[in-house]
Amino acid sequence: MDLGLNEEQEMLKKSARDFLQKECSKRLVRQLDESDEGYSSELWRKMAGLGWMGLVFPEKYEGSGRNFLDLAILLEEMGYNIVPGPFFSTIVLGGLTILAAGSEEQRMEFLPKIARGELILSLALTETSASYDAASIETTATNRDGGYVIKGTKLFVLNANIADYILCVARTKQAKNSENGITLFLVDAKSSGVRCTLLRTLARDKQCEVVFDNVTVSENSIVGELDKGWPIIKGILQRATVAKCAEMAGGAQAALDMAVNYAKERVQFGRPIGSFQAIQHYCANMVTDVTGSRFITYKAAWKVSEGLPAAADVATAKAWTSEAYGRVALLAHQIFGAIGFTMDHDIHLYYRQAKAGEIIFGDANFQRAIVARELGF
Amino acid sequence: MDFTFSEREKAFREEVEDFIDKELPGDWVEKSIYWPGGYGTLAQFEDLSPQVEQFTRRLAEKGWLTISWPEEYGGAGLSYIEQAIFHERMSYYRAPADEIATRIGGPTIMLFGSQEMKKEWLPRIARGEVRFWLAYSEPNAGSDLSSIQTKAIEAGNDLIINGQKIWGTAAHVSHYAWMVVRTDSTAPPHRGISLVIVDNASPGITIRPLINICGLHSFNEVFFDNVRVPKKNIVGEMNKGWYYLMVALDFERLVIPIGGFRRVFEEIVQYAKEAKHNGQALSQRPLTRNQLADMAVQIEIAYMLYWQTAWMLDRSLVPNIEASLLKLFTTELSQKLANTGTQVMGHYGQLEGTSKWSSLYGRVCLGYLDCISALLGAGTSEIQRNIIAMRGLGLPSK
User: How far apart are CA A341 and CA A189, in angstroms?
Assistant: First the structure.
């Protein structure tokens, strides 16, 4: 057993923390939250310059050849700082999918550009039923003249408003088993018939409604095999779920750190409020949640990284972290008192993130259902 | 990172499994009433004693009774991860291993005892011949242990002890008290305490049972009326007992019955799969599945804290936060598990083990009672939270 980060990982963590503290101030975070684009091209270029976009791509695609665990560590820091933008959708949902399931041609075409920070990707998976099962995919792609025509409405699509390409999950065949007959298409976001509407959300993350109104794509745009897309989706969901846990573990740590620092400084009744046991015990509870989230996420990320069966671990991590982050953010608010309820304060940014993170890729109840199934009861 | 056991660790784990399989009485796992985290159902008591003693002797022969001791004192020379593996497997089978003399007495004597004391005590402890009970708490000194009032005054080569101890777990089946007494009433509370070994058979000692809410005799109140103890039984130096106590806390970090949680969880799951309600297995009810999965998730968190603590110890890192988290988290899990278990089992969860209708030997019913003690013994949940906040996060005391 070895439960610590190696030297390279420690370095990555520290350099990411330092870089983001300097380059991604909370002022910028708010500014981007308020904007429609939700990202800074300058920060994006700098992140690409640090090699973050290509971190886990093999070198032949201009990547650094690091593993998924390293990416999780980076995401933990991005969650710590809250970095608005399409990193998650471009890398975790887009890039890793092309790497895992794309043809060599697709990889050569897309991955180097992603690594250079030249492309933004998005995944159009969920629809109006807002669930993550195959039966919920009602968007169709119909074969016509050697190509496909996509028709349907996707909801809660991250960063589609600025995406260059959208990975669209569509039904290409009606089958008794809803997991059969699903195909992934890599769609140019500028294709005629693609209509994107930004949704205003709690966390001000840029989620969209994307309507595919008879969008024509070529056969070459299929990622993976025709009708056999669902296993690819399962892979995406597994990686994305852990990746989100990593972000959340980082965010929870940040909320804890902020609250503890405040508790040491804020004086009431002639003493720092952190000297009161009520506050101390809140903080101890937060430590439990944060520490648990980090360890359990590392374990799941390590398993995914090593290519081991990880369904139970991933669901366990998300089940815990979904609720833990929320508890931590709530207690942090309680410690900050009324000042934390002002728009100018930073803590509500985390409170918002906690809820968004809880929901996406399935909340704790959803994950516990998976845990139950995976453990055989 | 690597979350798997090394080859050496795997082999050791198997060796532990084999030993338990061979030495633990066949029906033990089923019949032991031990509830993980609790103090009221520990295996050391009464009816179970002969079996416990035999198992203890076999452990001693194997060298595992003193598994955490340094090799020079006959310890097993294992890493902390390996010790953690040992405790995990032992607690999974609810095997009796947890003992004051080997866990706290021996290691403290090694660090602070005189040569004579080491010679007199360590071999006997290692052979499993002597059992200590922890004579710490007093009626007015619980969480605030440094306010103990039991006094020892010097009289020639002896100390004369007067006072009262309480919550003496297993005092009635032990041989010696591992005891803190006040030896200097003028010094600040922490600086006037000494640590001493007292023979249970000494004249002037009265042991009275305190029956816990499980109906079991685990605790005792013990009275000391002019009890004479030879001064050579003082551990280390006079008036330094508090310091020794603090150091000894480190010896307990991995003594968490982590496997016991998994074991009892598996049993409850098995029950839920077999028991039917309106023709449907309980385990098929969505709410039950959710509750059980929640327990699975929390057990996994507990395991991560456990391995992390061991891993840090192996690297000479001080797991202050982690160890307190582990204690806090697992004991609260003890309550949640009991509550979930009784909820899943419904009416059957309230049956004691003696009923022909009872399941799981009434363990969950008893656990529902015993889990109360989990959050109180060895530093209450509040004390653990204080430690995490002040020592871990650096929050001020005033």
Answer: 39
